[in-house]
Design goal:
about 350 residues; alpha/beta; Rossmann fold; 2 domains; 8-stranded mixed sheet
Length: about 350
């Protein structure tokens, strides 16, 4: 790169990362009655990015490996802002959710640049560790067979999995495994990014599978549980997984399926952490006593949840505790039916990761 292109990077990368944080803010605090106010809170955070984006057009083809992913990430971020503003005017929550779907697309384009651009690498760490020079040095020298893998999990595919193995992976150490299940209209390839910062910071193997059907098998025949078991076995055969720290967590329908599948007597999961999930007391009553006794379950729910009322989660805590599970309850006052990224660190502390 010459000085002009380095100047372009300095002009483009910081506003790109700030724009992505703005989109993530809306994703966390979105609540249908407050849609316009939440979008208004991020203001014109995209304006510096819009001003800088054209600078990439002058880059030569020799720099396409950097130019193209940066451009694609910037375009996705700007599309998210456009969609969110449209949603704020129309008061259409569906439009807002579609706009938020641009965030994982932007992150997927951006992440491969982490080894080349230190600000991007820091962006994919939790805030408390972004100035950790020793961690940065370890991440810059990735171990073999690490990074992000997609197994039959292109967008539109069902039943596959997206996997992250931390660049700091050490085969001499048993690593925790987090299996994170998307919501009813989601996809594992997108939901991976809800957990990647914390997994990368803490050295946790992360799997984000996609349901076999339109959503997880929360009623009727269950092809998803065998799929999850096979996935855990496949990951454990290739990388060293700590069999005492295998977490099944999920958002919305994914959280509900964490109950359904995780309470099975032969489940490989040692900890369950449903988030913003539906629950029926029969799940606890029908669970195998040997499975549920002492089982660590962390329940997270928002007081503002408009899809699954928080009373449902409180009933889950009571029923699971009465059945003998070791339950941790976390109610978040300002959380609607969205995924609270801030809970990830707490869950990893609870898992002992």
């Amino acid at each position: 790169m010459d000085d002009r292109e380095l100047d372009d990077l300095m002009a483009l990368v910081p506003p790109l990362l700030q724009a992505l944080e703005g989109v993530a803010f809306v994703g966390r605090y979105l609540h249908p009655p407050q849609l316009a106010a939440v979008v208004d809170a991020i203001g014109a955070a995209d304006a510096p990015l819009r001003a800088a984006r054209p600078r990439l057009e002058a880059w030569p083809e020799a720099l396409a490996d950097v130019r193209d992913p940066l451009g694609a990430a910037a375009d996705a971020a700007l599309a998210a802002f456009d969609g969110l503003r449209e949603a704020a005017v129309s008061q259409d929550v569906g439009t807002a959710y579609r706009a938020l779907g641009q965030l994982p697309r932007a992150q997927e384009h951006l992440y491969p640049l982490s080894p080349l651009l230190p600000p991007v690498s820091r962006f994919f760490l939790d805030i408390a560790h972004r100035e950790d020079a020793a961690l940065q040095a370890r991440l810059a020298n990735p171990a073999p067979e690490t990074g992000i893998f997609h197994f039959a999990n292109e967008r539109g595919e069902k039943g596959g999995v997206s996997l992250y193995v931390p660049e700091t992976y050490d085969p001499a150490t048993a690593h925790p495994l987090v299996v994170a299940l998307h919501g009813g209209s989601g996809h594992g390839r997108a939901f991976l990014w809800s957990w990647l910062r914390e997994a990368r910071t803490r050295g946790v193997i992360l799997a984000a599978p996609t349901a076999v059907g339109q959503t997880w098998a929360i009623s009727g025949p269950d092809p998803d549980t065998p799929n999850l078991t096979e996935m855990v076995e496949a990951v454990s055969s290739r990388w060293r997984v700590d069999p005492a720290r295998i977490l099944l967590t999920g958002m919305s329908d994914g959280g509900t399926f964490s109950y359904v599948s995780g309470l099975e007597p032969d489940s490989p999961f040692t900890h369950l952490a449903p988030v913003s999930a539906a629950f029926h007391p029969m799940l606890a009553q029908m669970a195998d006593p040997g499975r549920i006794a002492g089982l660590p379950i962390h329940v997270t729910h928002g007081s503002l949840d408009w899809m699954f009322p928080v009373s449902m989660a409180r009933e889950a805590v009571q029923a699971l505790t009465a059945a003998g599970a070791s339950v941790t309850w976390r109610e978040i006052e300002d959380l609607s039916h969205t995924y609270p990224r801030e809970i990830n660190g707490e869950l990893l502390d609870w898992l002992g990761a």
